[in-house]
Amino acid sequence: MRRINHLQNLALATCLMLAATGAQAAPDTLDVSAHGATVHVTAITDTILRVTIDRDGKPGETASWAVSPAMLAHRAPATIDYGTLRTAQLTASVDPATLHLRVVDASGRAIVDDAANPVVLDRDGFTLRKVMGTDEHFFGMGDKSGLLDRRGGSFVNWNTDAFGYASSTDPLYKSVPFFIATGGAGGSYGLFLDNTWRTWFDFGHREEGVVAIGATGGPITYYVIAGPTVRDVVRRYTDLTGKAPLMPRWALGYQQSRWGYSSAAQVEAIATHLRSDHIPADVVWMDIDYQDRNRPFTFNPVTFPDMHKLTDTVGALGIKLVTIVDLHVAHAPGQAYAPYDSGTAANHFVHNPDGSVYVAPVWPGPAVFPDFTVPATRAWWGTQFKRLTDAGVGGIWNDMNEPAIFETPSKTMPIDTVHRIAGDGFAPRNASHAEIHNIYGMENTRATYDGLRALRPEERAFVLTRASYAGGQKYAATWTGDNSSTWDHLKLSVSMLLNLGLSGFSYSGADVGGFTGGPSPDLLTKWFEVAAFTPFFRDHAANDAPQAEPWVDGPAHLAIRRHFVEERYRLMPYLYSLAASNAQTGDPIMRPVFYDYPQALTAPCNTALTFTLGAKLLIAGSPKPESLQAYDVCLPEGGWFDYWTGEAVTAQPIGHKPYATISVTPRLDALPVFVRAGSIVPRQPLVQSTSQVPDGPLELHVYPGADCAGELYDDDGHSMAFAAGAYARQAVRCTTGANGVQSITFDARQGTWKPWWHAIALVVHGDHAPISATVGGKAYPAASGTRTIVIPDQPQAVTVTFNAG
Length: 805
Ligand code: MIG
Prior knowledge:
It is a single chain. This protein is of the alpha+beta class. It has four domains: 2-241, glycosyl hydrolase (family 31) (Immunoglobulin-like, Sandwich); 249-342 and 375-404 and 436-579, Glycosidases (TIM Barrel, Alpha-Beta Barrel); 590-676, Sandwich (Immunoglobulin-like), CATH 2.60.40; 679-803, Sandwich (Immunoglobulin-like). The chain has 14 helices and 48 strands. The chain has a nine-stranded antiparallel beta sheet, with no helix packed on it. An eight-stranded antiparallel beta sheet has the order 1-2-3-4-17-14-13-11. Strand 13 (178-184) and strand 14 form a beta hairpin. Helix 7 crosses helix 9. The radius of gyration is 27 Å and the shape is globular. Residues 1-26 have low confidence and may be disordered. Bound molecules: ligand MIG.
């Protein structure tokens, strides 16, 4: 149609140079026009640039489903000269002839540079082309499968119910059109294409040396997020799209699920079995089986006659119930089904182009679909949860929200169904499903989250979702959908969770054991071991798969699985402090090794089943977990301890490389975990549920080394009181001398919360075990034959000194 907008032909572009209108200064935006397109560059912060491209002089809307109005309006001081915009940290320049955009850092190094033909407009779609550096590696893009590094890959964003997906399947459930490039001359950068339509990203797959991104429609709006570190980019991306809220502590506990727990008696039996087998656990999940005819917001009157009684009974065991609530409301006119009746009365459902209500089959049979882009519809949806919160349900699981539709080859709504936009900074208008599809699941979880918060304002809300979009971390945790019971999927789970974490979704998990197929006993055991160190730890299986609860393979397997679940509960103070810091900074809980050890980016430290939990623990499962062959674990330079024995590790340096390796012979009952030298890791006595107060002192495991530090965080674990100051946060540091750890310094505790511990057990690792510690003029001896010294709790700023033997 508008051929003049095709900029892909350089020769043509040269002829068209005369048509360029040149650059003009505006108060806070650099505007450069050529060939009927205008590039606008705005400094949201010193390190985040918003780039929009208008076509035919029609400015796009400044509204977003991912970025808050406050961030959209945020500006950093910038100087705009002819063709350039400068912030304190970046300079962006746009060539007035070609619209070529280049962003450099303060020392002139290119952070991101356009490739030839940088902007190609084609009907309603577009392609943007950036240079792909030879040493750059690419991460993020949400839950996409395949390798950790996206380099060489090509991906589409279109939320899809991908039952039975493999490592090559794309697209999957979520759309996070955001990647991080690292390894380039100017360090790392992030690029977030804020376009909800079907988008695609190509990392040198079609064309060597070019990152190409595009969409079939919608606004050309993207953000360049500068580093230089990956951590900088992730923190800034979550400044832009929002931090995940602090989850309740129980959501970090072990969670037992299965499609097919089909009566209250069975749910109760599962909870009782967890307790009688002494498997620490916090949640039992209830899949669609608890509902009446698969209708959302109902309880099956025969099999689940008294939901309140059930939540009370399992609640007494320290276990919460999380129930599934899918968005497909049964199309049940005249049947006194309140969600249908009230939703119809207020016109809350998605329409067909002819104005009728769109009806399609899913679990309840014919169903209708709330129009979650309408604020009034979200509010109505939120109120529907009252029946569940009144019954004492702990959290909500939003499945099928791609949305999934049965009996149609596209597996989803026709792209011409009509949604309404009526707020959120957008001009009111109708929008096609093509525009709304990728945010439909996120807006579903937003309605659920806000609804739970409104119904229980004092409590944190917990929502799990399958589909989402960039920024969806503000509303829900997520899981990787219908994986399979294969060793390949165990490996895949790690790369998927790592990329989700880098994409803002820190609180993620994969179905332990695999959803379909039924795991072998060894696979399920190894999966428990690995998943015990991942953020969201839920064993789940399909209705037609064999039972996969921890006890199904006999006492030997149960013992190993229990041991790893117990270890997670002992590590709860560390895990919870990571969750608290994620809510503040956006740092993922589970990270690729290069997040904290950038020198490991190109080392073989990033193989399958290798990751860190926070900066301090490195988990190094075998790259071939199905095999018992010895393998090399790669440890970034700087010293490590064996987490299980507490002994320092002697790793083999590899020439002058910034890492060393250690050979490990795998065992079914073991998973190598290492602790960084210079760490203080908090642990606690074993509990069977996070609702139980640990009996005994908080343990601080101290591992001597450079930059020795740790953090303590505690609060009541479930209410919003922390937001008003009822938390306890305390930094701890240690010094190391010739005799190992010399001292530990506690900063003054911040916040008004009084944590559960009254004493602290200092466990000092390394070659030298102290015989006593002195604090406040008093000496405390080590328990005989141990490296453990118990001192009183230390809320004030204080230094504890160790006395060598
Ligand atoms: O059509 O609710 O991914 O976890 O057990 C399948 C039944 C619907 C798909 C979810 C899965 C869940 C299942 N659901």
